[in-house]
């Protein structure tokens, strides 16, 4: 495909997102008149190539951002790898939260949660874990039938479920994700599997209800304490009393500390908070009773993942990090020691002393969206 690069709509440490317009003669049935193109130097494009591979496998799911293909270009003497993505001019759920004044009405929260769950069901059924579900990565798009909805985007941190953890040169493993949305097991045991996406969904849904992050963290120096609270404490985010009983119960199912007992995307889609057919809470419990042991779930592979990405920044959160920085953790001790105070303190110290430059600033994604009418195209 011949195309023209437009103005940037986002940038990170290793990749940029720009508008892309197919040149005349390209098939309009295959490519829309305006796309987003995510680009990186070919020598540093392994994560972007993995993202393209995953999106190709997930093609056909209406709740996942569509990828139209990829190519290589030479620009300013550099070889550039590009993937072409569906463009979402409205932006993300985080953008909508700002526009709406900080929170959504419950009917919209229900609708958005249902769409995200459908996307997660597809991701997990195909053997992947997203690892970075948050409002900034949920884009507002149009579905093939012409209706509007949200789609899961940014698979830069995604991994194959059950993937073995690879060591870095120093013999350490790395966490992946955004601290405010990390699950207890991802912090305490470096487990990044499907239940971690459900925990992050609960954080995102609660943020839509509250208009602010689920966890309170007012200053950058509180991040280590926050990670300790999430990974090793008994506390879960506070759910507002004014939320409906169905909404409170839904979020509670996402915030079950034990990932083996946390509800799956398939189970949550039958919950009355998001079910399209009205179902009572009592009927929901009959259809999908809250699991009491690991035997109530499909077999989970609690293998540790390999990580090569950073902790993304969050524009709505004071807890942010450069996208080129990684939370680095030493190899965990035996799992039967993971609940001991000595282990907890050791583990969180490893997180705290990792390669994190500055939690209070961000060199991560910066939204610089502009109206389509103001796009000034430059030659490819």
UniProtKB/TrEMBL annotation:
ATP binds at residue 38. Keywords: ATP-binding, Kinase, Nucleotide-binding, Serine/threonine-protein kinase, Transferase. GO terms for biological process: signal transduction. InterPro entries: Kinase-like_dom_sf, Plant_MAPKKK, Prot_kinase_dom, Protein_kinase_ATP_BS, Ser/Thr_kinase_AS. The keyword Nuclease does not apply. It comes from the Eukaryota. Signal peptide: none annotated. The keyword Nucleotide-binding applies. Residues 308-326 have a biased composition (Low complexity). Residues 3-274 form the Protein kinase domain. SUPFAM superfamilies: Protein kinase-like (PK-like). Residues 308-346 are annotated as: Disordered. GO terms for molecular function: ATP binding; protein kinase activity; protein serine/threonine kinase activity. Belongs to the protein kinase superfamily. This is Mitogen-activated protein kinase kinase kinase NPK1-like.
């Amino acid at each position: 495909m011949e195309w023209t690069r437009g103005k940037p709509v986002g940038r990170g440490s290793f990749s940029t997102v720009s508008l892309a317009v197919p040149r005349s003669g390209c098939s309009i049935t295959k490519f829309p008149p305006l796309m987003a193109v995510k680009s990186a130097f070919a020598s540093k494009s392994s994560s972007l190539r993995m993202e393209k591979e995953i999106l190709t496998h997930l093609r056909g799911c209406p709740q996942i951002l569509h990828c139209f293909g990829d190519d290589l270009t030479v620009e300013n003497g550099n070889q550039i790898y590009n993937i072409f993505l569906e463009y979402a001019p409205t932006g993300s759920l985080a953008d909508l939260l700002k526009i709406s004044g900080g929170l959504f009405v419950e009917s919209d929260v229900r609708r958005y949660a249902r769409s995200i769950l459908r996307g997660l069901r597809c991701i997990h059924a195909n053997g992947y874990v997203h690892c970075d579900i948050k409002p900034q990565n949920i884009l507002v798009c149009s579905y093939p039938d012409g209706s509007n909805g949200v789609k899961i985007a940014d698979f830069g941190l995604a991994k194959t479920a059950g993937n073995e953890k690879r060591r870095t040169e120093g013999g350490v493993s790395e966490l992946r994700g955004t601290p405010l949305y990390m699950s207890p097991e991802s912090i305490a045991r470096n487990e990044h599997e499907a239940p971690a996406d459900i925990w992050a969904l609960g954080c995102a849904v609660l943020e839509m209800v509250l208009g602010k992050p689920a966890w309170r963290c007012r200053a950058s120096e509180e991040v280590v304490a926050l990670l300790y609270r999430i990974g090793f404490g008994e506390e879960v985010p506070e759910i507002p009393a004014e939320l409906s009983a169905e909404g409170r119960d839904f979020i509670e199912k996402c915030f079950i500390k034990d990932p083996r007992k946390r509800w799956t995307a398939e189970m949550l889609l039958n919950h009355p908070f998001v079910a399209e057919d009205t179902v009572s809470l009592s009927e929901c419990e009959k259809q999908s009773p809250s699991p009491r042991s690991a035997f109530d779930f499909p077999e989970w592979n609690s293998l540790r993942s390999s990580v090569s990405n950073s902790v993304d920044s969050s524009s709505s959160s004071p807890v942010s990090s450069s996208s080129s920085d990684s939370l680095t953790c030493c190899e965990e001790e035996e799992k039967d020691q993971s609940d001991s105070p000595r282990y907890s303190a050791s583990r969180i110290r490893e997180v705290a002393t990792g390669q994190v430059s500055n939690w209070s600033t961000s060199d991560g994604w910066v939204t610089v969206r502009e109206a389509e009418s103001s796009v000034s195209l430059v030659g490819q």
